[in-house]
Amino acid sequence: QTINNRDATKQNITKALSDLNAGPQDVVVVFLAGHGLNIEDEWYFLSHDVKYPEKDLDVRQRGISSAELEAMLTSIKALKKALIIDACKSGAVLSALARSVEDRRAIARLARSTGTHVIAASTDKQAAAEVPNLGHGLLTYALLRGLNGEAGDGDDTVTVRELISYIEQSLPGIGEKYGQRPQYPVADSRGQDFPLVVLK
């Protein structure tokens, strides 16, 4: 299911994930692209209905918190899950779990607790760059290149672990190529590897 622009409200996103009828053998990929910010130790994805991102109360009420994301991912029964977040400071997606925990440890905990492979565009202190000439964020650009075959190992599939490895290696250089500071993704891979695409 795709939810774009003004339809990407907290209610619609939450309902789509809650209504997902996935069994253990299914593959579930959740991709969030937009804006994110931290309030204290909680990271929020800013859904379309956040009208005043400078006001903490509005963000807390209308944004989707890292704790809410964790709960929704945990409730999905699929054993093959991936969460990809192209948003500012997305490396802090689970900093709510513990104060002063390094980005990679927080992401590892999310991955472990939900059985999910996680790719976040940037650390909890870094903006996720968007390049106008590309039409989207750098992580999304790297993601699309990887899924089109650059992340594969020469066979006819691209697996989630191959994609994570490709993004970790290529994203800093892509940022520099387009005049941005190197952007370092935060990722952790838990559970079984599985194909995301079959190449033709």
Write down the Rg.
Answer: 16 Å
Spatial gap, N to C terminus: 23 Å
The largest sheet has its strands arranged as: 1-5-6-10
Mean of residue pLDDT values:
82
Question: Major beta sheet, specifics?
Answer: 4 strands, mixed
Unreliable spans are 94-103
Order of helices and strands: HEEEHEHEHEEEHEHEE
> How much strand content do the residues show?
15-25%
Find the count of extended strands (DSSP E, 2+ residues). 11
Structure description:
By secondary structure, the protein is of the alpha+beta class. The protein has six helices and eleven strands. The strands form four sheets. A four-stranded mixed β-sheet has the order 1-5-6-10, sandwiched between helices. A three-stranded antiparallel β-sheet has the order 2-3-4. Helix 5 crosses helix 6 (160-177). The two termini are 23 Å apart.
Task: Describe the structure concisely.
The chain has 200 residues and is an alpha+beta fold.
Distinctive features:
globular, alpha+beta, three-stranded antiparallel sheet, about 200 residues, single chain
Explain the layout of strands and helices.
Elements: H1 10-18, E1 27-33, E2 35-39, E3 42-46, H2 56-62, E4 64-65, H3 66-75, E5 80-86, H4 103-114, E6 116-120, E7 130-131, E8 136-137, H5 138-150, E9 157-159, H6 160-177, E10 186-188, E11 195-198
Parallel strand pairs: 1-5, 5-6
Antiparallel strand pairs: 2-3, 3-4, 6-10, 7-8, 9-11
